[in-house]
Write a structure and sequence with these properties.
By secondary structure, the protein is an alpha/beta fold. The chain has a domain at 4-138 and 171-196 and 260-270: 3-Layer(aba) Sandwich (Rossmann fold). The protein has 13 helices and 11 strands. A 7-stranded parallel β-sheet has the order 3-2-1-4-5-6-9, sandwiched between helices. A two-stranded parallel sheet has the order 7-11. Strands 8-10 form a two-stranded antiparallel ribbon. Helix 3 links the parallel strand 4 (69-72) and strand 5. The radius of gyration is 19 Å and the shape is globular. It starts with a strand and ends with a helix. Bound molecules: NADP nicotinamide-adenine-dinucleotide phosphate. NADP nicotinamide-adenine-dinucleotide phosphate is lined by residues 8-15, 32, 34, 37, 39, 53-55, 73-75, 101, 103, 137, 139-140, 143.
Amino acid sequence: MPQTVLVTAATGNVGPHALAQLLEAGVTARALVLKDDPNIGRVPEGVELFEGDLEDPDSLDAALEGVDAVFLMWPFFTTSVETAPAVVRKIEAAARRVVLVSSVGVHIGLERVDNNCHAYLEELLEDTALEWTFLRTTGFQANALGFAGQIRNGGTVHFPYGAATRTSVHEADVAAVAVASLTERGTAHAGQKYLVTGPLAESQEEQVRIIGEVIGRELEWRDIEHQAARDAMVGAGWPPSYADGALDYFRMLTTEAEVGSTVVEEVTGRPARTFREWALEHTAVFR
Ligand SMILES: NC(=O)c1ccc[n+]([C@@H]2O[C@H](COP(=O)([O-])OP(=O)(O)OC[C@H]3O[C@@H](n4cnc5c(N)ncnc54)[C@H](OP(=O)(O)O)[C@@H]3O)[C@@H](O)[C@H]2O)c1
């Protein structure tokens, strides 16, 4: 079993779960954090902190010194961050194992090397001597945090494609599949491209209804038109190709449910968490 694992995007949605689970497994858990990271409080106690920036590969040297494995999450939209090849080379020089959070978009062929960081990173890692595992995840249940402001301020959620049916996955389950892949003896997880999803297919509108049920308020969904949603996303900094990809995918999911898998249960031995469980854990954010 690896003794020391480095986690990137450590203060994001998945990172804190992964760090806590690594500690529980008896592994030395390291978090890569930015200088003066305002979210440092999300890192569990007992984790080793290392300052480093994925846009500056040399800044990762101290964090990678002596690691056995890396849980790599790439917190950038596009392949325009030029440091990915150098970061991957540094991981290859330091570690034996790597787990990458990739995306369902790669699984279904929507995300390609020329248009998306997940496919690009998979290609870079496949070309190394590392024991790699890719977690091609559907949307995180935490994406519903994006509805929180509208739910607190009136209760009508304006968003595109309410009928889009998602198999959203709990961030703790993404972390659990990663921790199993990072820490279990043997090479069963090496070379695996796992499709990691939640247990149920629910429309976005249903997710909002479930949030309403757990906080005891009736909530309303109003679809935003495709073009207005695209303008808002690009205005908020999304690269146009990403906005188009996401919206075309949502539109597709109004007529066919998102793909699902039983990987969480197969790999971790426990059922994947439902969106209702996630909502019950986060009621305070929506009240
Ligand atoms: N959300 C989804 O539905 C979805 C679906 C499929 C795949 N994914 C993948 O899942 C991954 C994990 O997502 P997440 O939501 O947990 O995290 P995230 O939002 O992608 O990343 C946020 C984390 O990255 C850190 N960070 C930002 N810039 C950095 C830099 N230059 N160097 C080092 N760290 C930096 C942030 O630090 P601060 O605390 O300073 O902000 C924060 O800890 C994503 O990277 C994405 O590739 C997400």
